[in-house]
Design brief:
The complex is a heterodimer of chains A (about 325) and B (about 325).
Chain A lengths: L1 H35 L4 H6 L5 H11 L5 H14 L12 H23 L2 H10 L4 H15 L2 H15 L15 H35 L2 H8 L4 H29 L3 H6 L5 H10 L3 H29 L7
Helix pairs in contact in A: 1-4, 1-14, 5-9, 5-11, 6-7, 6-9, 7-9, 8-9, 9-11, 10-11, 11-14, 13-14
Chain B lengths: L8 E14 L2 E14 L3 E5 L6 H9 L6 E9 L2 E2 L5 H11 E4 L3 H4 L6 H13 L3 H14 L5 H4 L9 H13 L5 E5 L7 H18 L2 E6 L2 H5 L4 E6 L2 E7 H6 L4 H8 L40 H5 L5 E2 L6 E2 L13
Parallel strand pairs in B: 3-8, 3-9, 6-7, 7-8
Antiparallel strand pairs in B: 1-2, 1-4, 4-5, 9-10, 10-12, 11-12
Helix pairs in contact in B: 4-5, 4-7, 5-7, 7-8
Classes of the chains: A mainly alpha (about 325), B alpha/beta (about 325).
Chain lengths: ~325, ~325
């Protein structure tokens, strides 16, 4: 058992090491970014009418007058201590704020991901009946869904479901931990809007993947053995199509986990996307840096899981 | 007294025709195919690439590409296949016919353990339990000559060589104890020594299990000692059909004769130039009106280009050929 797990442990550790390198690179760039802004970071935060005294005070508090590498090292030290300081304006602990917002975004992203999985069985069915009516209809629908930008979908859906049908609220929020039912009611529209593109995208990729797989010789062999279509689809076509589907799911997940600005800000969902947008607008550099770091961590973890997924799905892929 | 039951036709095709649409109009892929294979007999189907060998097998098995229209009557063990619904037909074929395809590399699903691929048809068609199917699969693996069948059961296809994969395909074809085993160019993709091993295995299995067998090949040498009858296809038509020994000793159709003389023989002196057949097989979209072989035939005459020859019988009652000017019959030695 341990000998079976060893390659996986090795693969995970090598990927974690590269992940840490990527993390350092990106967070350092984020620190350096604030130095690239015109004027000093303190000037940027306080605006054009700040007095030199105010700027000097902020510089001493946040160390914006120090060289980049020094600021970066002290930020890293803060991170290791688990104390990233407080947000510039509301003066809340940054780590707490980021984790709380991340939880909201994670909930929506995973729900949207779960909804988009419908695309896979639909793709399976239409790929096994190519160019029949359902196939054509589903392909057209997915093309339309992909062509309509999210901000249009958001407006249309909130008008239809919140204003006309009044099924779901247009804005508002309840915490999952405090009132799960109300929470689900509030996330319904954001999840639906976020999942539409993902579903259409996943459907298209999965359909093409299934069509290709169904042309393989081993599928013809399975048909010659008189195996039923449903059996062939689930036992012979699903697994070969999975690596490609997994890639798309990984990309979708990172896209959604990094925060969907449009959906979150439109529905006033207190998630990462909404937070980073307002943090950028208000020049809350420490908060922006914290969210960027979290995003890097998410990307590294998701891609690592996708890579491990390949090895679990395809017996020919060697881990590490 | 003979204990074996009386033989009856296991597979027969009557006036079978396959047609497919293409950009240049309908293609006649197979024209008026007639043959009948009895139980415990072996049939060889030979012809060049594009002669329609594989299409014939695919049409019989019901796995032809979309758009292929098959007419005529195909009977499997007395059952008219065209009268069955697609699902029933697939089930009947799956139970009664085992098939081994040309390319063992792509015929096995690389994502599924080979044991599973061998036993699945048994579970579905014969309702075998998991344990029963497993022991049958392991038994078949050792029967086709795989070492350590218990371990092999759990392996994936990429862990085997081409010859081993083809043996696995044969094991899978045998799981439902079929009445008919079809080997569609089953050894073409293998190297020569492995080819012989696999062919010998097929022949042994056919004899031991008292099955019928169809060997499809472009190589006359493959079918020579291993079949009872031979069907020569050219451009989608049967040009000669008869007992293998008879056709080899006494070919009547000019195409069969040309094929036979294109085969290297042991008793030829060294550096003998092999005879080849000049020209190309017919374009199915633009068939000649007469004999499909006429444009390449050294003995073709005006009639050959105009009138399609009908099947005529040779001296041996079941030897038939479609040629206006057949080769002379060699005196029969009884």
């Amino acid at each position: 058992m341990l000998t079976n797990a060893m390659p996986y442990i090795r693969a995970i550790s090598t990927r974690l090491i590269t992940g840490i390198l990527v993390f350092l690179l990106v967070t350092f760039s984020a620190t350096a970014l604030s130095s690239l802004a015109p004027g000093s970071a303190a000037q940027l935060i306080l605006g054009d009418y700040a007095t030199p005294e105010q700027i000097a005070a902020l510089n001493t508090q946040y160390g914006y007058d120090l060289p980049v590498w020094q600021r970066y090292l002290s930020w890293l030290g803060d991170l290791l201590r688990g104390d990233l300081g407080v947000t510039l304006f509301s003066q809340q602990p940054i780590l707490g704020v980021v984790l709380e917002r991340a939880a909201v975004t994670f909930e929506i992203a995973f729900l949207a991901m779960a909804v988009s999985l419908i695309g896979i069985p639909v793709a399976m069915y239409t790929a096994s009946h190519p160019n029949k009516l359902t196939d054509k209809v589903m392909r057209s629908i997915s093309t339309v869904l992909l062509a309509v930008p999210t901000f249009v979908i958001v407006v249309l859906f909130s008008y239809l479901f919140a204003m006309v049908l009044r099924w779901f609220p247009a804005t508002g929020w309840a915490k999952l931990t405090e009132n799960p039912v109300a929470n689900l009611w509030y996330v319904a529209l954001p999840v639906l809007c976020l999942s539409l593109h993902q579903t259409a995208y996943l459907y298209r990729v999965a359909r093409n993947e299934f069509v290709t797989t169904l042309q393989e010789d081993y599928i013809a062999v399975a048909r010659a053995r008189g195996l039923p279509l449903s059996y062939i689809l689930f036992n012979h076509a699903l697994r070969p199509a999975m690596p490609q589907i997994l890639t798309v799911m990984g990309l979708s997940l990172t896209y959604m986990l990094a925060g969907s600005f449009v959906v979150e800000s439109y529905f006033a969902v207190p998630g990462i996307g909404w937070t980073i947008l307002s943090a950028v607008k208000s020049h809350d550099i420490p908060l922006v840096q914290a969210i960027l770091s979290l995003t890097v961590v998410i990307f590294v973890i998701v891609f690592m899981l996708v890579d491990l997924g390949y090895a679990l799905i395809d017996p020919r892929v060697k881990v590490s | 007294m003979d204990a074996t039951p009386a033989s009856h036709p296991i597979l027969s095709c009557k006036a079978m025709t396959c047609e497919m649409d293409s950009v240049s109009g309908p293609l006649q892929i197979l024209q008026d195919i007639n043959f009948s294979l009895d139980t415990r007999r072996a049939l060889g189907i030979v012809g060049e690439s594009g002669a329609g060998k594989s299409m014939l097998i695919k049409a019989i098995m019901g796995i032809a590409p979309r758009g292929l229209r098959t007419k005529g009557r195909i009977e499997l063990d007395g059952q008219d296949l065209s009268a069955l619904k697609p699902k029933q037909r697939a089930k009947l074929i799956g139970r009664k016919v085992g098939i081994v395809f040309q390319n063992p590399m792509s015929s096995l699903n690389p994502f599924v353990q080979i044991g599973r691929q061998i036993e699945e048809a048994g579970c579905i068609h014969l309702g075998m339990s998991k344990a029963e199917a497993r022991s049958r699969a392991i038994e078949l693996l050792s029967f086709v000559g795989l070492p350590d069948p218990e371990d092999c059961y759990n392996y994936y296809p990429h862990q085997f060589s081409g010859g081993m994969k083809q043996r696995i395909m044969i094991a899978a074809a045998l799981i439902c104890q079929p009445d008919l085993l079809i080997a569609d160019e089953a050894t073409t993709a293998l190297d020569v020594t492995v080819q012989k091993e696999v062919l010998d295995l097929l022949q042994t299995i056919q004899a031991q299990r008292q099955m019928s067998m169809i060997l499809v090949s472009h190589n006359l040498g493959v079918v020579a000692g291993r079949t009872d009858e031979i069907l020569v296809l050219y451009g989608g038509n049967v040009v000669e059909y008869g007992p293998t020994s008879e056709v080899f000793r006494n070919p009547r159709h000019r195409y069969t004769e040309a094929l036979l003389s294109a085969m290297p023989a042991m008793d030829q002196p060294a550096h003998t130039r092999l005879r080849t057949i000049p020209g190309q097989p017919p374009n199915l979209a633009n068939r000649p009106a007469g004999c499909p072989f006429a444009p390449r035939c050294p003995s073709a005459q005006a009639k050959c280009h105009e009138v399609m020859p009908a099947m005529s019988a040779g001296v041996h009652p079941s030897h038939r050929f479609a040629c206006h000017f057949p080769l002379a019959e060699i005196a029969h030695v009884q």
